[in-house]
Design a protein that fits this description.
With 557 residues, this protein is α+β, with helices and mostly antiparallel strands. It has helices at 12-17, 37-42, 46-49, 60-63, 66-76, 127-153, 158-173, 205-212, 220-228, 246-252, 284-320, 374-391, 401-415, 494-497, 508-517, 523-538; strands spanning 21-26, 31-34, 85-91, 97-106, 117-125, 177-183, 190-197, 214-215, 232-234, 256-264, 267-276, 333-339, 350-356, 362-369, 424-434, 437-445, 451-453, 459-460, 478-483, 488-492, 548-554.
Length: 557
């Protein structure tokens, strides 16, 4: 074709061979020429269209105002669509709409179509382009929701996940601000729990209005979403009375909103609102993705919340297996550390205890139950409470370490079920503080031997024995150990010595002795140095950490 201002239709054979539909209109807005491709695109026969107004190719809603616009173009030669390609719906002969790409050019001369021809239009099927665009949009939405889910997996609990949900959604889906609503268990209404705005912006009138509202089911955008349990779209918040917070949206310049429910099964966990300052269409593809994302996020957050509740129960149970505080013993400093393992059992099998005896001495116990979880916790509780009962003032005689450990052994054997064997390793001391130092009577049942540090090189004390809960004939040798001023006695579980780095090398007894050989000022600095060295060994390790308990008894110099 010639340049736009002097286009001439001098080659009808060429036009009729084109795969795109070509329509020429005269100054009255009637079709002066149309090539055969129009039949494949819109189902019309070319000869039938010639002489008909251009509106025959337009859906009804686009015909209004066409006459005035075309007349203005014929008079001035200026039109918004001329020289550009625009995506519009066209009317098929059968009555349905077809998406087309429309390109318009002005004609000054038209040898074939007649001197009165004014404009030529090229129509191309846009359905493939639209499909590709929609597929791209859907893939963008899906990638965004996957990134949202991935971000939530890093949250340690449901509260943190909810806090991170809004900024991640807005950033990934290109919305300006968002609010989060959750059911209030006391009122049964939806309460505002959070607002996100872009970095550098302060929450405005909509945030303040949202804080004041408590929506019932079916009220406002959150309540509608709650009632319908599907995403709800309001493209013009300023004119739709369903939104309720209209004046606040006007004050903030917010025009469009979409809300979607976060569901776990039939339970509503939350409603998320996304807002845009532009009045923007919300495609059906985004609505579908948000509905699916709401259920995915709901399942994840529900699982995270359940896991949080289990962890809280496990923490409560774990605390019940350890003393709430260590007692004050004249002439002895005490310090302890406990850290649960990294497995899924949640409740560890390590415990320690310190309790007074009737004659002024003190019993000290550290124990490690085989396994983790609820069954191990039950065995741990049985071990600790049996040891306390054996050494309590109600006992007929003041028990020594051997008597305490034999009592625990008998209780474990009585409680043994048909399940897996739950044996226990333990170390029991009876401390006798005196004016010249402290004497400790040590009994060990399959447990790592205590280590006595300073003065001199650190050394293990006691005699190894068999674990508890395996056989009734338990022999526990007792050894008396003097703790002179300036010394520290360390009791620990195998979570210390069996900690492995990424190569599989264990911390070992040698590692413990090296830490203690460096010298520690008191009981607190001793347990701190040991646990820090173990954490360093475990850093970046592929191997799972075991439960760890450390108890230090220091005699000041």
């Amino acid at each position: 074709m010639a340049p736009e201002s002097t286009v001439a239709l001098a080659a009808p054979a060429l036009l009729e061979a084109l795969p795109d539909a070509v329509v020429v209109a005269d100054r009255e807005g009637r079709i002066a020429y149309v090539n055969p491709a129009i039949h494949a695109l819109l189902g019309h026969r070319p000869e039938v269209l010639v002489g008909q107004p251009l509106t025959v190719l337009m859906p009804e809603r686009l015909r209004r105002g066409h006459g005035d616009g075309f007349a203005r173009y014929a008079a001035t030669g200026h039109g918004k669509l001329v020289g550009a390609t625009t995506q519009l719906p066209a009317l098929h002969a059968s009555g349905h709409e077809v998406a087309i790409d429309l390109t318009l050019s002005r004609l000054e001369q038209a040898a074939t179509a007649g001197a009165d021809a004014l404009v030529v239009a090229v129509l191309r099927d846009a359905s493939t382009t639209i499909l590709l665009e929609r597929q791209f949009e859907v893939s963008h939405y899906l990638r965004a929701t996957l990134r949202v889910t991935a971000a939530l997996t890093e949250a340690r609990d449901a509260d943190v996940a909810f806090r991170d949900l809004l900024p991640t959604l807005c950033t990934e889906l290109d919305w300006d601000t968002a609010t989060l609503w959750q059911p209030d268990e006391h009122t049964g209404r939806l309460a505002h729990v959070g607002t996100w705005t872009a970095p550098g912006e302060e929450p405005g009138a909509l945030h303040e209005a949202s804080r004041r509202y408590r929506f019932v089911r079916g009220e406002g955008l959150p309540g509608l979403t709650w009632a319908q349990r599907t995403p709800t779209v309001i493209e013009d918040l300023w004119s739709d009375p369903r939104f309720v917070r209209t004046e606040a949206a006007r004050a903030d310049g917010i025009r469009t909103g979409v809300a979607f429910p976060v569901l776990r099964g039939d339970d509503l966990l939350a409603v998320c609102e996304l807002f845009s300052r532009e009045e923007r269409p919300v495609p059906a593809e985004l609505v579908d993705v948000l509905a699916h994302a709401g259920r995915q996020i709901g399942q994840f957050l529900g699982r995270l919340r359940a896991e949080s509740e289990v962890r809280q129960l496990a923490d409560t149970l774990q605390r019940s297996l350890l003393p709430s505080h260590l007692p004050a013993i004249r002439g002895v400093e005490l310090a302890a550390r406990y850290r649960p393992g990294g497995g899924a059992g949640l409740v560890g099998g390590d415990t320690y205890d310190v309790m007074p005896l009737p004659d002024g001495r003190w019993m000290v116990l550290i124990a490690d139950v085989c396994g983790t979880g609820a069954e191990a916790a039950a065995v741990t509780a049985l071990t600790r409470h049996t040891a306390r009962a054996a050494a309590s003032p109600a006992a007929e005689t003041t028990a020594g370490p051997a008597e305490v450990l034999r009592a625990v052994n008998a209780a474990l054997l009585r409680a043994q079920s048909e399940g897996p064997l739950r044996f226990v390793t333990a170390c029991c001391l009876v401390l006798s503080p005196g004016p010249g130092g402290v004497c400790a009577t040590v009994g060990v049942a399959g447990h790592p031997l205590p280590v006595l540090a300073g003065p001199g090189d650190p050394r293990e004390v006691g005699v190894p024995g068999r674990p508890l809960g395996i056989a009734p004939d338990l022999d526990v040798p007792e050894v008396d150990v003097e703790l002179p001023p300036g010394s520290t006695l360390v009791l620990y579980t195998d979570g210390v010595t069996e900690a492995r780095d990424d190569t599989g090398a264990q911390f070992g007894e040698d590692g413990l002795l090296r830490v203690l050989a460096e010298g520690c000022r008191n009981a607190e600095s001793t347990v701190e140095a040991i646990t820090a060295a173990v954490e360093q060994r475990l850093r970046h390790s592929r191997y799972e950490a075991d439960d760890l308990a450390v108890l230090a008894l220091a005699v000041p110099a």
